[in-house]
DNA sequence: AATATATCAGGAACTCTGTCTCGATAAAAA
DNA sequence: TTTTTATCGAGACAGAGTTCCTGATATATT
């Protein structure tokens, strides 16, 4: 019954395999070994096997996995073969950037409308997607059975917009704001957290520099 | 010697504490307990204490931590108090969005120039930052001692641009492309991987729906 | 046909991260 | 001054995830 016991790290790695495999398929390669995938993507080969096993795809000794089959397995597993309609709220710089990506449609998400509160952009079309006033979201979301909401608003507005989304029947929120919205049980929130990334980057760079400095100025005596 | 043994999850959580604490400080709150931080951010309170301990900040029983001190400690720890100059390559939609964020400067990264290969945008200024031809990157990066490179180019170009960055002395790459560039030892790469996020989101949503469907159509007999 | 080899798959061991428990301590209350 | 209470900090424990190890299997080689 508990089919959802897939490690989250696995879910995070699958898209990276997917992109790698699609490019491989485009190059015309038919078969691939887990060892090769692992080497190219910097993941241990046993890890690759375990991750792929979750998708149900099986490999054959001595020849590896069929590239096209793997692509199909991952697509099915992630439910990327039939895109779910999504609403985006916050048509600022980041929101506009996301609207520009046709690639999301292949990743299970199709942005069908954008919302904002600024009159200057309401009514315009960005990359073929209309920007509507936020007040229209609840009604439209219900009527169109929208289940994914993309949150690209400033931190201050994030909680209110998240509440509005949930009240309108949206079940999953892709959150780009630097705050984590408080949501009721059962609602899925996936935080992008750009600043987390910067935390890791800056700290590692600082350590890296300190190490380089220490090494050059005086490699301490044994 | 091994001062860099900070768990990566901790580094990822620190920015979220930081934002929370800055907002608290703006509201005029002086003291805060780890328990309260944990509750508001959805992190176990013991976890909050361990994370904050890495920054060197100490709390006092019965009163908690000093908000302003905590902010300062995290800033220092992540090296966010003096922003490092960065070059951005790929002034497309996403690149433009990133150029628009003044907030990165408070997160240790100051974008001082953008690069692209498309003549249509070379020479323009985006949010006060000039877009220069990619060929100028190596020379400028060396002369300005740039150590952070932001990669917002299509997957096909990612590896080549990463190579160029590294050859120009850049030590840390903030990568937004869906491929993981192959870099020599010692170079820091932090991948944002938007699609990983979507992998988790789509899969969870699919599982969520299956569960809802199963519950409604027939809650299996005990 | 027999042997060798590349690859897969599943279980065991280890490591890392997160949670729980306990004693200590500083402020407040009695 | 003594007692109570909120909070901290450190160590013990538990769970998850990754790596290692062994055995199985399909193709290639002799």
How would you describe the overall organization of this protein?
Chain A contains 8 helices and 9 strands. By secondary structure, chain A is an alpha/beta fold. The first copy, chain A, folds into 2 domains: 71 residues, Winged helix-like DNA-binding domain superfamily/Winged helix DNA-binding domain (Arc Repressor Mutant, subunit A, Orthogonal Bundle), CATH 1.10.10; 108 residues, 3-Layer(aba) Sandwich (Rossmann fold). A 7-stranded mixed beta sheet of chain A has the order 5-6-4-3-7-8-9. The model of chain A has no long low-confidence stretch (mean pLDDT 94). At the A-B interface, helix 1, helix 5 and helix 8 of A face helix 1, helix 5 and helix 8 of B. The structure holds a DNA duplex (30 and 30 nucleotides).
Write the layout of secondary structure elements.
Two copies of one chain form a homodimer.
Chain A lengths: L7 H19 L4 E2 L1 H8 L3 H10 L10 E2 H12 L5 E6 L3 H7 L9 E8 L8 E2 L2 E5 L3 H8 L3 E4 L3 H13 L4 E4 L12 E4 L2 H24 L5
Parallel strand pairs in A: 3-4, 3-7, 4-6, 7-8, 8-9
Antiparallel strand pairs in A: 1-2, 5-6
Helix pairs in contact in A: 1-4, 2-3
Chain A binds a DNA duplex (30 and 30 nucleotides) through helix 3.
Quick overview of this protein structure:
By secondary structure, chain A is an alpha/beta fold. Chain A folds into two domains: 8-78, Orthogonal Bundle (Arc Repressor Mutant, subunit A); 84-191, Rossmann fold. Chain A has eight helices and nine strands.
């Amino acid at each position: 019954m508990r089919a959802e016991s897939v490690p989250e790290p696995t879910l995070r790695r699958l898209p990276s395999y997917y992109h790698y495999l699609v490019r491989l398929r485009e190059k015309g390669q038919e078969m691939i070994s887990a060892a090769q995938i692992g080497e190219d993507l910097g993941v241990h080969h046993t890890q690759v096997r375990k991750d792929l096993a979750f998708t149900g795809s099986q490999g054959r000794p001595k020849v590896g996995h069929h590239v096209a089959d793997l692509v199909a397995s991952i697509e099915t597993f992630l439910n990327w073969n039939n895109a779910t309609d999504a609403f985006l709220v916050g048509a600022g710089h980041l929101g506009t950037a996301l609207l520009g990506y046709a690639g999301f449609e292949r990743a299970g998400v199709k942005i069908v409308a954008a919302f904002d509160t600024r009159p200057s952009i309401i009514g315009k079309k960005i990359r073929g997607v209309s920007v509507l006033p936020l007040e229209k979201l609840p009604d439209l979301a219900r009527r169109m059975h929208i289940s994914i909401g993309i949150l690209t608003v400033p931190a201050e507005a994030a909680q209110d917009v998240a509440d509005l989304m949930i009240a309108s029947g949206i079940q999953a929120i892709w959150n780009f704001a630097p705050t984590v919205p408080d949501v009721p049980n059962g609602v899925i929130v996936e935080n992008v957290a750009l600043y987390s990334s910067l935390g890791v980057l800056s700290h590692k760079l600082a350590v890296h520099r300190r190490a380089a400095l220490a090494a050059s100025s005086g490699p301490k005596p044994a």
